[in-house]
Amino acid sequence: MKTFCGRANPTTGAMEWLEEDENYDYHQEIARSRYADMLHDKDRNTKYYQGIRAAVSRVKERGEKAIVLDIGTGTGLLSMMAASAGADFCYAIEVFKPMANAAVKIVEKNGFRDKIKVINKHSTEVTVGPDGDMQCRANILVTELFDTELIGEGALPTYEHAHKYLVQEGCEAVPHRATVYVQLVESKRMWSWNKLLPIHVEAEDGEKIIVSPSEMENCPGVPSVCDIQLNQMPLSDFTILSDVVTMFSVDFSKPVRSASTYYRVQLEPVKSGKAQIVLSWWDIDMDPSGKINCTMAPYWVKSTSAFQWRDHWMQCVYFLPNEEPVLQGEMVYLTACRDEYSVWYKLQKARGEEENKTDVHVESPVCRCQAHLLWNRPRFGALNDQNRTRQYIKSLTKVLKTDSVCLCISDGSLLPVLAHYLGAKQVEYFFLVFWSLHFNLLFLFFKANHLEDKIKIIEARPELLTSSHLEDKKISVLVGEPFFTTSLLPWHNLYFWYARTAVISHLTSNVTVLPQSASLHMMIVEFQDLWRIRSPCGTCEGFDVQTMDDMIKVRRLKIVLAQVAAKQDKTHLGLKKYLVTVEKFVLFKLWVLYKVTGSDPPPLPRKGKSHGAVLWMEYHLAADISVSTG
Ligand code: SAH
């Protein structure tokens, strides 16, 4: 069976359909979904094994047969642990076909064919009874269905269903319980990934401030968690405003409710400041006593955490809808709302508790300003990067003249606003946008800065730009950051190059293009930990999982290089300035290890293991002015 996969072509910006084999890229998906990282997570594996052994013993002590239900078996690991621990039979459920096939092979290879039945179904499709998938309900429920946010992979509805239809009342669950912890902080760095901070522009006639529209300031954003390695966040990047408190916990051995709800805690700020961010993580107790605990607590909460590296479970950063000033010692209420798959937070000043309770709306937040739909967190971060903004200001000042006619091609860029504030008031600005969502966002922006009459927004793809869009004017300055929402990899923003070629008939013969050129840089690196996510496991807790390793084919860097090299096949480059880019890209073909220098790569600075290559782009805006995506 073939599958059609929709994909935005980053070179042309067009949406394309690709016909793929049913199992195409699934191996990549598996690799990306951090399976290898999970299997390398010794702490997780040993604690699951301990918890499973303890649960099997408890059931046996009661004189019962140990019948295990393992939902989301993956490689079959937890079922094999249960079978080794003496379980009488295991039903291993796995919805993802290639994975279920691998589980069958792994179970067989490890000699558990008679003890483990792999069922390739979603757990909600599983039937129980003499002719069903399971002969009877299980009395041990084992799962590992958690993501960084705990519930984002659908653990709650899966548990809810399993308790109703697949397991016995009073079953043993491994893990037994999960607890979610929170801590309130102020952090300019993290806040800049969610809101646009005022941008200061030093113009000839004084300092100007670009403000964001009120719709953006008061926007609750989107309920998608920002998951990061808090263990890599230095303490200097945030101020702790509260102690760590338990937000909520879930007992997996009892019926679970997945319906939307909220939890509320009272917090006494330990410091006055601006409450902006809720940091959150969870731990799981593998047994009822809580002695076998696997925690995601960051280093300042549990000092050994810094050594327990894992990438498949990290920590969560939740942005409050607005920053809220809090005073040391003055109580506040923090509310966690959740639906089946995500969590979001609200903070309220303590009034009467009853009064506060009436304020809780559990509806999921909806982005009102569009920015949270169009810009991801790195994009917010880039727009808030004052140093980066300074490079654009410097280069715009160089290229803009009083009689310039300027066209900007970049998604949701503030370049024309910057340019306008730099003083060239007579300059005419056109802004090409491809989607109406961008149109709306920019319009809000221009309006908030009283520029709606100064910058004309044109909604058209570059190929379809007409002279009438440009009021029959020729463009003398073409600018782009460049940034496009469809770009996933560093060089995808070279779409600007394509767009520039597409609008060539509208450019004057001596047009200035900013950026002038671009270069792709690469460095071979040795990772401290990240190598684990792609590294073969061989055996995991004594079980042979090599079949899994064989599935995760590490694609060779060669393929990435081939993709980039393919972008050189453009014969429609008009302007000289762009020949620089072409040359650099031709050079790229020759170069293997280091930064594009035009000469042979330098020798490696030290011996080590080359785990991978990092690639990034540098855009050369004007002579000696560059911005880097590195
Ligand atoms: N248990 C394995 C793998 C955990 S990853 C281990 O601990 O190493 C979670 C797996 O569960 C994924 O393979 C996913 O496809 C599967 N899965 C998630 N929800 C499921 C459900 N409701 N029914 C069946 N499989 C599910």
UniProtKB/TrEMBL annotation:
Gene3D superfamilies (alphabetical): Hnrnp arginine n-methyltransferase1, Vaccinia Virus protein VP39
Pfam families referenced in this protein's UniProt entry, alphabetically: PrmA, PRMT_C
Domain named Protein arginine N-methyltransferase: residues: 176-347
Keywords: Methyltransferase, Repeat, S-adenosyl-L-methionine, Transferase
Root EC class: transferase
Domain of life: Eukaryota
GO BP terms in the entry: methylation
InterPro entries from the UniProt entry: Arg_MeTrfase (IPR025799), MeTrfase_PRMT7 (IPR014644), PRMT_dom (IPR055135), SAM-dependent_MTases_sf (IPR029063)
PROSITE patterns recorded: SAM_MT_PRMT (PS51678)
Reactions catalysed according to its record: L-arginyl-[protein] + S-adenosyl-L-methionine = N(omega)-methyl-L-arginyl-[protein] + S-adenosyl-L-homocysteine + H(+)
Protein purpose: Arginine methyltransferase that can both catalyze the formation of omega-N monomethylarginine (MMA) and symmetrical dimethylarginine (sDMA), with a preference for the formation of MMA. Specifically mediates the symmetrical dimethylation of arginine residues in the small nuclear ribonucleoproteins Sm D1 (SNRPD1) and Sm D3 (SNRPD3); such methylation being required for the assembly and biogenesis of snRNP core particles. Specifically mediates the symmetric dimethylation of histone H4 'Arg-3' to form H4R3me2s.
Name recorded for this polypeptide: Protein arginine N-methyltransferase 7
Organism: Pandion haliaetus (Osprey)
Organismal lineage: Eukaryota, Metazoa, Chordata, Craniata, Vertebrata
